[in-house]
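Hey, sorry to bother you again with one of my protein questions. A protein chain has come my way and I'm curious about its shape. I'm sending you its amino acid sequence along with the backbone structure tokens. I owe you a coffee for this, so here goes:
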Amino acid sequence: MQSAKDLFSYRPYWAKRLLPTPVLPTSRAEMEALGWDSCDVVLVTGDAYVDHPSFGMAVIGRLLEAQGFRVGIIAQPDWSSAEAFKRLGRPNLFYGVTAGNMDSMVNRYTSDRRIRSDDAYSPDGKGGTRPDRSVVVYSQRCREAYNEVPLIIGGIEASLRRLAHYDYWSDKVRRSVLLDAKADLLLYGNAERAIVEVAHRLAAGTPLQAMRDIRGTAFLLKQTPADWVELDSTELDEPGEVGAHPDPYAHAPDGQQGCEKGRVVHTLREVPREQRDRVVVRLPSYEQVKEDPVLYAHASRVFHLETNPGNARPLVQAHGNRELWLNPPPIPLTTKELDRLFELPYTRKPHPAYGQARIPAYEMIRFSINIMRGCFGGCTFCSITEHEGRIIQNRSEESIIREVEAIRDLTPGFTGNISDLGGPTANMWQLHCRDAKIEAACRRLSCVYPDICINMLTDQRPLVQLYRRAREVRGVKRVFIASGLRYDLAVRTPEYVKELVSHHVGGYLKIAPEHTESGPLSHMMKPGMGSYERFKEMFEKYSKEAGKEQYLIPYFISAHPGTSDEDMLNLALWLKRHNFRLDQVQNFLPSPMAIASAMYHSGKNPLKRIHREGGEVVAPKGDRARRLHKAFLRYHDAANWPLLREALKRMGREDLIGNGKHHLVPSWQPRDSVVTKEGGRVERKGETHQGKSRKAPAKQRPMVKKSTKGKPRQGR
């Protein structure tokens, strides 16, 4: 894989002598107290400003500060006018805009498209503190405030919307957010390398329009440069009989699609070997993927095949008469760079302006430590891979232990318990491919599906050593593991499972089999239940040896593409057999650019070659279908019984309706039970049994097991 310039090797900007600040300023008064007349960079975010390495704007802000730039933060501004965006004055270099740690639509709406009443990233959890599509709205206001200032967008919302993408909330394909935001540059993924290089080049007088070689960026062009060769994406994955349909690679009617100067080829064999580092892959245009779901699935597949920093090629996608150019992903940070990034002078607290207000997201993570980045699992419903990449970026053991000590010494309210040592997953720290050349050449979408790759090193004994050292830090009583565990990896190192179960489970451990049936699991790229059963056996064995009563909490997804009503029925029967009564469950939410979202929208499977005929994927759509799948997960809830009875009759499974132990739902309905109806309405139900009102027998009442100390209610 290519090397990259060290993140901290740039010559600091002149303002270095004024830094660092106790906390990045959020007002003119704070700037004046620091002796600043202006900010070099102003960062706008949809989250409350928490100066902690788990909050993206704090990381970017402190990193730019370490480079010598004066950075100000505008957090959760009033977007009704441009006034709040002028709060810190005109930035000397650029505005940086993000929606925050979450996509604003995911943050504001449930998977049933209902607006949430709260916001975990706001003071006191107050909802309504950010607009829908925050990146677009904030960018518009920045333009109104200071139109001539360069505008850069980033964060997960911009990252996952960098190309034409399916948007679940509007139920249509939207163009790249770069166009809607009218920004100059889009940074995707973990953008530290790109933001530092952009800032130093701007400070040196280079215009953004001249920055076309920075990895992890997207920008607009009028046409493909003459020294590049365009590779037709059908060479990589042929979307059916292209000749029998409108050519997705033809020029737009106005002739401005950008192929006039760049030579177009259909196979790499046409490109001389010495020119292959100047090949760009042309995707079908926005207009074409918007109208043709098959081409959308094709574009999704090609995009995901071009995400390894070691071999990814640039992508280009026409949007009308402009070309959206996407450079390859950034080179992952080294351990040395990641250590230094996490050890910048964060206060590890919310900004003092919030006073005593609680910020729920901060409360969740203030005693936790992020030990890594990235995930090579490739689960199709998850966007971590699209954002952080598949290559694991590790912090060193020494740096992690120093952060444990920093939490002990600096974080208010610390009582001796570290709430988590993890990241996107709990147990991928220091796992990697056995050969760097193989890793750089690989185009697999997952290193662990359909089975763990033979080249993947899965020894988790270094993680065992880390856990032991963290427990031994003076002042630390317990170290818990709260990040999701990849149990198919865990069973490869029994010593790790024993250490985890004996010392790091706080009564329960969450894992995510997601489903029990092979159909849905294959569309999720998740392992079968055999791995779950092996891990469960080890978990129970080591819990017993440790003399502890501990519980596994399995997570499941309903209404995922590739899931039939029969699949959900079988999952419900599995839950009943194992006496699981889930409290909270999750309906599949199609997040932008995820592979499963492409399945949902197109009805095709981007995990395989796309063809117009055959290869259809069942995708539960509509409120009724999605409510039914969710109801199967909560088969014990009386509110779901009428819907389940109706479905079981339709499926020819009336044998599961009755009052015996082998039945899924009873034939009667409790008096005054609340039943969810179409459109979210509820009504009181008062069915009778043999002409008389009847209550559920005690042994059949849909109640969660009585809790014991350290044991939670089953479910999320």
